[in-house]
Amino acid sequence: MFPDRTLIVAAAAATLIISPVAGAAQAKLPPYPEALRCAALTHAALQIGKGTKEEGVLFDHVIFWSMASADAGRAAGKKAKEVDAEVEGASAAIQPKLRAQDGATVADLAGCVARVPPLDK
What we know:
- The protein contains five helices and no strands.
- By secondary structure, the protein is mainly alpha-helical.
């Protein structure tokens, strides 16, 4: 359980450190594959972090990237159910990598988290 907690704390810390800058930089809709990847990464992190004090911050990440992936999917001609299924499938595949603290996966998650603007404004 300790590695999972480390991952969650790292994701939450990245949000606190980078969010003000990320909010200013967020300008356009990311391409669908990128939005899908970030939606799946943040969803996987939330699944791992359920019941922790970081759950609220993780939920904010999921909300942002879920909306971004839905918008990008719509722009790419995908139906909402298709996008949801792709996020769920990718998230399930990512969870073991996050639990194992796979360096590339954790770095991808941190990159996605860094792009989430403050949702309280």
